[in-house]
């Protein structure tokens, strides 16, 4: 999809996405380097959980319960991050053009919905549609790395091991391949980011055999099991906050 169409139709900054995506691929699950684990209202290590203050600390204390409800706000978060990247940080190759296209997306979208449904039904449609969009996006992206190995900023690990050990594959089926768009082969995607998605499945057995020969753990699980692992990890890293509350109450 052309640059202009991507920004205007999806309502997010192309430059922001490329910048974030490249940083993630370069340093997956590495603190202070991977933006995908630098989320104010979530913690992926005990140290991160204990460092939070105020409302963020309260939310993280129960983040395993609040994880999926918060995902309904993913669409709002994406748009907010796009505007901050373009307007406040003045980054991107064409910040003015992208900002204008984002505003066109917003104006045209709202005008279409409200002219079709009216105000309050239109508001309800937008809320439901954006919540479902956020849940779908998260259902695809969250299993890729959440709940997997994390690295400290100064921790050194070779490219192969970091890409494999920090990622999780979701077992393939025709439905899973369709739902994930090929990103269920996350390990292969990270090892070969420029490989066409229709070739990722063919490369999987080669990667599995290669990792087995070198005693590198290759993690693959089912779709719902991946969510169970994520929630279990979120529960564990936020445990110190709950323990502090118990001790304070006693």
Provide structural commentary.
- It contains 14 helices and 2 strands.
- By secondary structure, the protein is an all-alpha fold.
- The chain has one domain.
- Strands 1-2 form a two-stranded parallel ribbon.
- α4 (54-61) crosses α14 (239-249).
- 25% of the residues are buried.
- The model has no long low-confidence stretch (mean pLDDT 92).
Please estimate the helix content. Answer: 55-70%
Structural class: mainly alpha
Question: Can you write the helix and strand succession as a string?
Answer: HHHHHHHHHEHHHEHH
Quaternary state of this entry equals: single chain
What amount of the residues lies in strands? Answer: under 5%
Number of helices: 14
Average pLDDT works out at 92
Major sheet attributes: 2 strands, parallel
> End-to-end span in angstroms?
59 Å
Low-confidence stretches: none
Q: Based on DSSP secondary structure assignment, what is the total number of beta strands?
A: 2
Shape: globular
| Rg, alpha carbons | 20 Å
Order of the strands making up the biggest sheet: 1-2
Q: How many independent structural domains?
A: 1
Notable characteristics:
2 strands, mainly alpha, globular, 250 residues, single chain
Question: Strands, helices and their partners?
Answer:
Elements: H1 3-10, H2 14-26, H3 46-51, H4 54-61, H5 63-71, H6 74-88, H7 95-117, H8 119-145, H9 159-165, E1 169-170, H10 174-180, H11 186-191, H12 200-213, E2 220-221, H13 223-237, H14 239-249
Parallel strand pairs: 1-2
Helix pairs in contact: 1-7, 2-6, 4-14, 5-13, 7-8
